[in-house]
UniProtKB/TrEMBL annotation:
GO terms for cellular component: cytoplasm. The keyword Oxidoreductase applies. This is Amino acid dehydrogenase. Residues 16-408 form the FAD dependent oxidoreductase domain. One of its GO terms (molecular function) is oxidoreductase activity. Transmembrane segments: none annotated. Keywords: Oxidoreductase. InterPro entries: FAD-dep_OxRdtase (IPR006076), FAD/NAD-bd_sf (IPR036188). The keyword Oxidoreductase applies. Pfam families: DAO (PF01266).
Length: 427
């Protein structure tokens, strides 16, 4: 049960350290600063430079199905055998990843799968409306585009597409099934290889994930938040508050939020919490759109068969996707970013092509084996909160996570049931 640590109204002098300036930490910091706390945001790299930087920018609220699905079990061997396929597992990392995979497979059981799906549905439900409100307040509505998104199919098998359509409908997602002509009407630059699409009408995308992080952090700074670029090495709680030990100093605060994405394990272990987190490394390739050309797409387009996504961004088309299990520190294999371009050539009539200015990027998705993040008050530390492990949906769930952390910290009843998101499920 949550302990009330900072009731709204008497929190003016309370200080909070938010560790990790990714989209999750930034949203928590902004919310707490808005609630009247004195917030210091800390990051070892800078603002928004971790996994939140080069992602696909898709507010993907339709993704309510946990990744641990039985159907994946049969596809896995084939997926893993292709070194440049959508999923790769490095031989060096294989042994280390086994415990995570065991838990991942366990979460495929239908009772757990359904339970996790319900939790994701609740978390995603108001994820976009919270962003809209935030961006309106920050006068940055240009960073969000409400054009929906498409999931396109090259297959001729309509039954297969129908099945998926029914699956989304049953999960309460706003979706339309479009045939080839309807799809091309919506996105004329898609190639003739596309036969069907699912049109998710209520989703959105950002035209620049890094600008989104920076804008929200600047907005929080205007309200009084401070930022420090420094690595946090340990967090401890005492009767008086929380001590945050960094490379340079010892920061004493009343409360602390840990939002270190894929790097969260060490700080949590220091507090005696087990966190089975894997870095699900993904890649993106940004193709600059010539100043004279119009954007090749109006909305994110994901390929069902090729398992990647293309998002029109400010001056670039960003291709993103793939999953690579290789740990946090292995060097990036940018061939995985390049292969996205080969895939895009099947889906688009024309690709923006200026090889010199293309930018490739690798980011570590913070993934837990049940596809749910951790959003909670630390069970044995009433002054410490966790907001981490948002896997493929951290951008989508940033604003709602900030709201929920604000509700937990102020002792209000959270707007959704947070039991499924508690760290205690692993401890
Ligand atoms: C290819 C790709 C495409 C994606 N597309 C989408 C998408 O379309 N939609 C979506 O919703 N999600 C998407 N994601 C997932 C999304 O990017 C992540 O879930 C999200 O960025 C996680 O945010 P975060 O703030 O938890 O982590 P991060 O952004 O990684 O931030 C964590 C921060 O903590 C800092 N840090 C870590 N340890 C310490 C320490 N000890 N001291 C100080 N600082 C520390 C790091 O420097 C980092 O800045 C995608 C991911 C990838 C890889």
């Amino acid at each position: 049960m949550s302990t009330v640590v900072g009731q709204e109204g008497n929190n003016k002098q309370q200080t909070v350290a938010v560790i990790g300036a990714g989209i999750i930490g930034i949203n928590c910091a902004l919310e707490l600063q808005s609630l009247g706390y004195r917030v210091t945001l800390l990051d070892k790299e800078g603002i928004g430079l971790g996994c939140s930087k080069g992602n696909a920018g898709h507010f993907a609220t339709e993704q309510v199905f946990p990744l641990a699905e039985f159907s994946l079990l049969w596809q896995m061997p084939k997926l893993l055998l292709d070194p440049l396929g959508p999923v790769a597992l490095s031989a060096k990392h294989f042994i280390k990843a086994i415990p995570w995979f065991i838990q991942f497979f366990n979460n495929m059981r239908s009772t757990l799968h359904d339970k996790n799906k319900k939790a994701l549905q609740a978390l995603n439900k108001n994820a976009i409306s919270h962003y809209i409100a935030l961006l309106k307040a920050a006068e940055a509505e240009h960073l969000i585009s409400l054009q929906g998104s498409l999931l396109v199919f090259e297959t001729n098998d309509r039954t297969k597409v129908e099945l998926m359509y029914q699956h989304y409908l049953a999960a309460g997602i706003s979706v339309k099934l479009l045939d080839k002509n309807q799809t091309l009407e919506l996105e004329p630059n898609l190639s003739g290889n596309i036969n069907y699409s699912l049109y998710f009408t209520d989703v959105a995308h950002t035209v620049d994930p890094l600008a989104l992080s920076k804008t929200l952090a600047e907005f929080a700074m205007c309200k009084g938040m401070t930022f420090q670029q420094t690595a946090v090495t340990a967090v401890t709680q005492s009767q008086n508050g929380v001590t945050v030990l960094t490379d340079e100093q010892c920061l004493n605060v009343d409360l602390c939020v840990i939002a270190c994405g894929a790097w969260s394990k060490e700080l949590l272990e220091g507090l005696n919490y087990h966190l089975p987190i894997e870095a699900e490394r993904g890649y993106s390739l940004s193709l600059p759109i010539p100043a004279t050309a119009s954007a090749p797409l109006s909305r994110p387009v994901a390929s069902a068969e090729r398992r990647f996504i293309m998002t029109p961004m400010d001056k670039t088309l960003r291709l993103a996707g793939t999953v690579e299990y290789a740990g946090l520190n292995a060097p990036a294999n940018y061939k995985r970013a390049e292969m996205l371009k080969n895939n895009a050539a099947f889906i688009l009539k024309t690709l923006p092509d200026n090889e010199e200015k293309q930018e490739n990027w690798m980011g570590c998705r913070p993934s837990l084996p049940d596809s749910l993040p951790v959003i909670c008050q630390a069970p044995n530390h009433d002054k410490i909160f966790f907001a981490l492990g948002h896997q493929h949906l951290g951008l989508t769930q940033g604003a709602i996570t900030g709201k929920l952390i604000g509700q937990l910290v102020t002792g209000k009843s959270p707007e959704i049931n947070l039991d499924p998101f508690c760290i205690s499920r692993f401890n």
